[in-house]
Write a structure and sequence with these properties.
Blueprint: H1 7-25, E1 30-34, H2 40-48, E2 53-56, H3 59-73, E3 80-83, H4 92-95, E4 101-105, H5 108-117, E5 122-127, H6 143-152, E6 156-162, H7 170-186, E7 191-193, H8 200-205, E8 210-213, H9 215-218
Helix pairs in contact: 1-2, 2-3
Length: about 230
């Protein structure tokens, strides 16, 4: 992680983004500020600017950063923490005291571990709607059964999550987002997390309620050092 970020610049970018999101999607859309590889001061800066949700991808980085954030950096209300990276069952215990919403649940082994370590926790089931092998997420055909398994295990399934295609093709992106939004509705779920810095507008147009944005708020992402 890098040195202390420019809190004023982060606040300006976040508030500008929030205004644009509100104008496009109304109050239904929330911004998850993706703070991976940025220092705890970046979390404080975006929280102070009004952001209520932050997203992290890496378990150990989140644990180390969150301790520093709470102890030394931030005195206001804590933002909601969303884990959005690939989730390994053996990391659940480490993350359970911190994470409020698990966005990347994509298989039954993770459901089982979450039910054991943090019963009643909130999750999103991640769907691989683009068919790319390097993308996380369950097959669309397996989504309903995973939702049912999670519910039977005592977890609270808020909705679904997906990632757009690597090539960013607008037609493929829109098709993937439209599919997952439709699946969310058909399953009677309320949240659909889709859209990042490069494609959030398409996602909002297709019904996203959570967009995961990093570089458009924080600027160029520093390399990972943990």
């Amino acid at each position: 992680m890098t040195g202390e970020p420019d809190a004023s610049a982060i606040a300006v970018r976040y508030r500008g983004l929030a205004d644009e999101v509100r104008a496009r999607g109304g109050e239904r859309v929330r911004i998850v500020a993706v703070t991976k590889t940025f220092p705890p001061e970046a979390i404080a800066a975006v929280a102070n600017a009004g952001c209520a949700c932050i997203g992290e991808n890496y378990a150990q980085e989140l644990v180390d950063k969150w301790d520093r954030f709470r102890a030394n950096v931030h005195e206001g209300p804590l933002p909601e923490v969303h884990f959005i990276g690939g989730l390994q069952s053996n990391k659940v215990r480490l993350l359970a005291p911190i994470v409020d919403l698990w966005q990347s649940v994509d298989r039954e082994s993770v459901v089982t571990e979450l039910a054991r370590r943090c019963p009643g926790t909130r999750i999103l089931v991640q769907v691989n709607a683009v068919g790319e092998a390097d993308k996380g997420g369950c097959d669309p055909a397996d989504t309903e059964s995973l939702v049912l398994a999670a519910t039977r295990g005592g977890l609270v399934v808020d909705g679904l999550m997906t990632v757009g295609p690597t090539d960013g093709d607008p037609q493929r992106t829109r098709s993937a987002f439209r599919l997952v939004a439709s699946m969310t509705s058909n399953l009677g779920l309320s949240e659909v997390s889709m859209g990042m810095s490069g494609d959030w507008r398409l996602a909002v147009d297709e019904g996203s309620t959570l967009i995961r944005v990093g570089s458009a708020i924080f600027g160029e992402r520093p390399p990972r050092t943990l």
